[in-house]
Amino acid sequence: MLKVGVFGVGHLGKYHLNNWKEIPEVTLIGFFDPNNEHAHEVEATYGLKRYMDEEALIAACDIIDVVTPTHLHFPVCEMAIKMGKNVFVEKPMANTIEEGKTIVNMVKEANVKLQVGHVERFNPAYTALKDLELNPLFIEVHRLAQFNPRGTEVSVIFDLMIHDIDIILSIVKSDVKTISASGVAVLTDTPDIANVRIEFNNGCVANLTSSRISMKKMRKIRLFQKDAYIGIDFLEKNTEIIKLQQPGDNDAFAFDIETHQGTKTISITNPVIEQGNAIKAELSSFVHSIMNDETPIVNEMDGYLAMEVAHQILEKISKSTSKVSQTLAQDDSPREDLNTD
Fold first, then answer.
1. How far apart, in whole angstroms, are the C-alpha atoms of residue 233 and residue 239?
2. Is the CB of residue 223 less than 8 Å from the CB of residue 171?
3. Measured in Å, how far apart are the chain's first and last C-alpha atoms?
4. pLDDT confidence of 321, banded at 50, 70, 90?
5. Is 209 helix (H, G, I), strand (E, B) or coil?
6. How far apart are CA 72 and CA 80, in angstroms?
7. What structural domains and CATH numbers belong to the chain?
8. Hey, what's the torsion of the CAs at 91, 95, 98, 101, to 10 degrees?
9. pTM of the full structure
10. Which of 33, 80, 85, 188 is the most buried (most CB within 10 A)?
11. What is the tens place of the pLDDT at every residue in 138-191?
């Protein structure tokens, strides 16, 4: 039985507590949270011990679950890894690239397991494609959310888009070639809406749009590859595959089209989506990796690479915003009247 301690029992932390309680291979030892309102609620609801000393909680556990605000991820991870504990940390893994690099090196030196909470990897709509070969040439992503003050201490890139960055990096087996990006801070001090184009060395192109000031919710990825289109709806949890029918295919629906190369048969398939809880699935997967000494599905390098691309995007947005500001300043500068003869 693995012992679990949770750091941070706010909104998402409570979801983690509920799911840890349903995993038979673990037992919850306690939690740490300086917020008295959160702490008293958890003590009353879950009957769970509140630790006032971070090191004491870490020492009592095999797994430390870090569900704190992003800027506190690194100090908790550092303390836990140095004490030889396995760590599950919510996305993004750390607040800065330097912190991310340090975590990667520490995990290797300490020989512990670390998993990053990129929960969409465990979404049933995505896992339904586990047996399908994905080699996209073009990717279109839309992740839209209604405004919620919770989580706005970071930009929309780290709040929302990083989910899709991780998914894309896990699918496209190639290094990033170029990134172009634009974004606007509307209701907060950091970008609330952003559009990004990522080009990979293998020729794949990904267009991503994320907004946390939308009137509607949307979490969709569309993959276009030779002879196939794959649509994934993470929100509604459904998946659609449209492709050229191959010999032996037994698809639910198919129709013929005429092309310059002759008649071709198009098939439409909706894979069976297994109902499941993505948070419970990612936590269970981490437990499985520890018990079987396997690399976690979303390990520290995955978390770092997603962070690295996200920081590059923010840098591009910052430079783009700076250029626009300079141009506007020049346009507003006093001008001498032009005399014409």
1. 6
2. yes
3. 91
4. low
5. strand
6. 13
7. 2-112 (3.40.50.720), 122-277 (3.30.360.10)
8. -10
9. 0.88
10. 80
11. 999 999 999 887 767 789 999 999 999 999 999 998 999 999 999 999 998 889
